[in-house]
Amino acid sequence: MLRTESIPDVNINRKQKYLGEKGLLALLGLLSAFVPLSTDLYLPSLPGIAEYFRASVHLTNLTLILFFLFFSAGTLLWGPLSDKYGRKPILLIGLAVYTAASSLCACAESIYLLIVFRVFQAVGGSAAGSVATAMVKDLYSGRRREAVLALVQSMVLLAPAVAPVLGAFLLKFTTWRGVFWALAGIGLLSLAGALAMEETIEHHYEGTIIQTMGRLGTVLKNPGFTSLLAVFSILGISSMAFIASSSYIYIDGFGLSEQTYSYYFALNAMGLIAGPMLYLQLSKRFSRRSIISSCFLVVALSGVLITMLGNFRPWLFALTLLPSSLAGSCVRPPGTNLMLEQQAGDAGSASSLISCFGILMGSVGMSIISLDWGNTIVALGVLTAITGLLCEALWVWTANKPFIRQVHD
């Protein structure tokens, strides 16, 4: 079994001349946050967009669902290409597409054009999501990598707390179009950071384009990686189902204002932010395996509480959802690190698959919760409970397999 102590924590040959380590970590956090920034910032605008275009909820939600689907598909393209051509060129191309598409979203004259431009926005933004995790593997290893992942993911999860509040604030001064202009500005900021970044990959893959894309299949043939990929991807079903339904639950269901909704959303997002840091503290006293197992059970219990109590008051719904948010984000650093540890090379392909399957499962959750349920809160609670129990069962089965590295560390 590969021991973390035998690997240096940081590759000193690839330090950043212009960004420095702090600047690089900030860039990694921003790049990794493209999904929550591109969705949560305009969540308060969803009811207004539906009203503006006189579109149904299901049609309006396609701006979310298709974004996630094409974002996940895009990661499968950019990740392997970054193994061949380098992280920086792929980032520059993807971020340029994202920025242009965000501007077009702001100018859309129909719901159908908005959906199309969101697809291009997703494809461009997926370069950021797939390359960021690969960069972490390029530069860090062992416990240091796990700590960096926890820090970056806490920065990432700050976006769900801040974005809806900022989105609701923007709506006081502008329309939903202004929100997309803000996303275009985020794209430009990321593009500037990517220009200042030094290349992080040390060895480029030298095969053809077809062989490069074929590395995705090579990674999937690794049973250790694929087993863990299934375990940790499924958790995205319940978390993304909440994101898709949150504005309708709080604004339409409980009758709250857009600004008040953003505060409730931020309350649960605080659990997301605290989760990775909580893991670092718990890992000093408990094994990785027991922490992950306990977190999956907490998610399931949270689902039961949502089903039983979530309909009574908005604050009660937020509190019953909080344990799921906290536990779900707590398993992200060890889960991502475990998956990366299973694969010696092909960091871009491995990162792509991690992003793709996580978002794909999230899209499944969004599609499920968008169906015409009689009670959305009860449906979300049941979905959360089932997700937690399924992840727990798969984790217990997977963790006992001899081909899984470092589960017990």
UniProtKB/TrEMBL annotation:
Source organism: Thermacetogenium phaeum (strain ATCC BAA-254 / DSM 26808 / PB)
A GO BP annotation: xenobiotic detoxification by transmembrane export across the plasma membrane
Molecular function GO terms recorded: xenobiotic transmembrane transporter activity
PROSITE patterns attached to this UniProt entry: MFS (PS50850)
Principal localisation: membrane
Keywords (A to Z) from UniProt: Cell membrane, Membrane, Transmembrane, Transmembrane helix, Transport
Pfam family for this entry, one: MFS_1
Transmembrane portions of the chain: 24-43, 55-78, 90-113, 119-136, 148-173, 179-197, 225-249, 261-279, 291-309, 352-371, 377-397
Source superkingdom: Bacteria
Membrane topology field: Multi-pass membrane protein
Subcellular location: Cell membrane
UniProt-recorded name of the protein: Bcr/CflA family efflux transporter
Domain Major facilitator superfamily (MFS) profile positions: 24-399
Family: Belongs to the major facilitator superfamily. Bcr/CmlA family.
One GO CC annotation: plasma membrane
